[in-house]
Amino acid sequence: MYGAQLIEALRRRDPSVQFFGAGGERMAAAGCEIVVDAKDLAVVGITEIVGHLAKILGLYRKLIRAADERRPALAVVIDAPAFNWRVARQMRKRGIPVVYYVCPQFWAWRQGRVKLLRKYADKALVIFPFEEKFYRDRGVDATFVGHPLADLAPPAISRDAYAAANQLDAAKLWITLMPGSRRKEVGMNLPTILEAARSLDADRPDQDRLDKGRLGSGYEFLLPVARTLEASFLQEIIATAQVRQSASLQNRIHLVTEALPALYHSRAAIVASGTATVEAAIMGTPFVMVYRVSALTYALGKPRVKVPYFAMVNLIAEEEVVPELVQSKFTAENIVAELNKIIADGEPRERMIGGLAAVKARLKHGSGSAQHPSEAAAEIILRMVEGT
Q1: Is the separation of the CB atoms in 74 and 388 below 8 Å?
Q2: Strand partners, 220
Q3: How far apart, in Å, are the Cα atoms of 298 and each of 186, 328, 329, 335?
Q4: 325 and 197 share a domain?
Q5: Would you list the DSSP string of 6-72?
Q6: What string of pLDDT tens digits covers the 388 residues of the chain?
Q7: Is the Cβ–Cβ distance between 319 and 301 less than 8 Å?
Q8: Roughly how many angstroms between the first and final C-alpha of the chain, as a whole number?
Q9: Which long-range contacts (CB under 8 A, 24 or more apart) does 256-261 make?
């Protein structure tokens, strides 16, 4: 998504610029020749990545060969540090300037790896306000350009039109389920989320306390299909999870194509840690953050975590705006308990909505600029290209 926005911004400034690299459908549609499909790199976790190393190494070599053949004027690497700092190192060896856009979250853990960014990247373009100082204090030329999602407008489609397009009951409350974008994390997160959905009706808050009086009792559950996943994969989990004991619930779980309209029109959401938490904040949708990795990955990673929160919105706010249910706390019972606090009208819901609005405001402006983040990034990148 961020790569596609950046390509479009660069082409608006200079239509002659050409692009190739690793990406997905959106980058391809924006005009990038895809050498490596991003889906093949979508692996998360320390232990989980081991079985994919040979394949990832082959893709890495393919990308480097393409760079050797085409000799780009500049390389932009986005997130994915385990893969991209190796790409950056190879570009540096070849005298190709490197911009790191959406920088690794080294402030969260493995802070010693900042030296890799300092060594292999000529410029860091960061998307969270606290990152600029963190990286500059450690010798990295970093600029906060703003978060690429911060200026997202509310979806234009009305609730009734969205309901008709997705066979939803507009008279019910909607809850969006976002278990992640990678197969492994979805496999670990979605079954518990579905169990919570099954329990939610039985523990429904008093409907008289809801501010949407026209809505009937009961819920519809919206499950956006991430671009890195197949609908059949999600359907298989739904069919085999505990939700199979409730055919009526199974019929009320709707796979939808876009996350933002689902979030915007939902009363609340259950969201796995990651970019989706920022999307929920920008849509102003109260939510509960959940996450689980393998026991070994958690045991190896937890001692290295250097920040007080897991959820990005809490890190940005510097306080707990949304509840974090991670690992052993990630249970259906805990999800339902936290959701019931924010589905009903009242102080907890209003406090969270206010906190999410404050997070959105913090993400909006990079380094005093009113430009869209992708435009600010494009301006810096083209100045670097001209300088070479």
Answers
A1: yes
A2: 174
A3: 16, 11, 13, 20
A4: yes
A5: HHHHHHHH-TT--EEEEE-HHHHHHTEEEEEEGGGG---STTTTGGGHHHHHHHHHHHHHHHHHH--
A6: 899 999 999 999 999 999 999 999 999 999 999 999 988 776 655 555 666 678 888 999 999 999 999 999 999 999 888 889 899 999 999 999 999 999 887 776 666 778 888 999 999 999 988 889 989 999 999 999 988 888 888 999 999 999 999 999 998 999 999 999 888 899 999 999 999 998 886 655 444 445 444 444 579 999 999 988 899 999 999 988 755 556 667 778 999 999 999 999 999 999 998 889 999 999 999 999 999 877 777 676 666 666 677 788 998 888 999 999 999 999 999 999 999 999 999 999 999 999 999 999 888 765 455 678 999 999 999 999 998 7
A7: no
A8: 27
A9: 256/166, 256/222, 256/223, 256/224, 256/225, 257/224, 257/225, 258/155, 258/224, 259/176, 259/178, 259/224, 259/226, 260/152, 260/155, 261/155, 261/157, 261/162
| Structural domain boundaries enclosing 371 | 2-146+366-387
Residues 70 and 216 in one domain: no
Does some domain include residue 284?
yes
115 in a structural domain: yes
Per-residue tokens: 56: 């990832």
DSSP string, 278-344: HHHHHHT--EEEEE---HHHHHHHGGGB-SS-SSHHHHHHTS-SS-EEEGGG--HHHHHHHHHHHHS
Q: Both 258 and 271 in a single domain?
A: yes
Residue 11 CA from chain centroid, whole number:
25
Q: What is the pTM of this model?
A: 0.74
- Any residues with CB less than 8 A from the CB of 10 and at least 6 apart, and which? 17, 19, 378, 381, 382
Read off the DSSP letter of residue 198: H
